[in-house]
């Protein structure tokens, strides 16, 4: 059967072809604002690194790159679960979507634990936010991102609860899409943050 | 409809796989590339490709109004480009 035909007449493909922005417009403006703030942090970090290349190179060597890699995989996987949860929600399977969102949240917990482990490992070495410019920026940027992850996890739990109790449907899904988009933004930011601070 | 949903999920899975593989490549790039300039360039190019996957597939902006899609896509092109210029120029 062609994709554009179904017993319900209107398919997901039809919805996508209407070129509608997923979620609330206000959420997208919020996402743009958040991306702009992080862009300033990223560019500021690169400029500071260019001016203190030896200090930053030494600082990066003290970071746990594998921990950063594990966190990248955790956030990408969490984002994947949210993406398929949205697909499932479009099928009006709220409970299944809720389980997938909880799974996404559980995967994000890996990120939280690894990040905290990283912080405490640095603290034990006597490294803190005031150690030098590199670690000031490292803690500032990663803690700011961590706060966004925590907020995103709360938003995900909120939409999971609503999906479980049947408050979303294929036609009433804007809130779900907004929460999912926010979570993908958190992932998108880490995709830039990880190579900038840990790898390059 | 269910067939289309399966296709969407399959697309998301492929995207997830691409993101994981690109992440691993970017981490182990230093094993294959000696030149810092090339290494930074490739790592930032990978950032742009990964960003495009998240925006188009996970965020589902591939079918969104062009202005919004372009705004988000330009972010994952312009920010790595500026970072690259700062590092390499």
Automatic annotation (TrEMBL), chain B:
The chain crosses the membrane at residues 12-31, 37-55, 67-88. Pfam families: COX4_pro. Keywords: Cell membrane, Membrane, Transmembrane, Transmembrane helix. It is found in: Cell membrane. It is a multi-pass membrane protein. It comes from the Bacteria. InterPro entries: Cyt_c_oxidase_su4_prok. GO terms for cellular component: plasma membrane. Its main location: membrane. This is Cytochrome C oxidase subunit IV. It comes from Litorilituus lipolyticus.
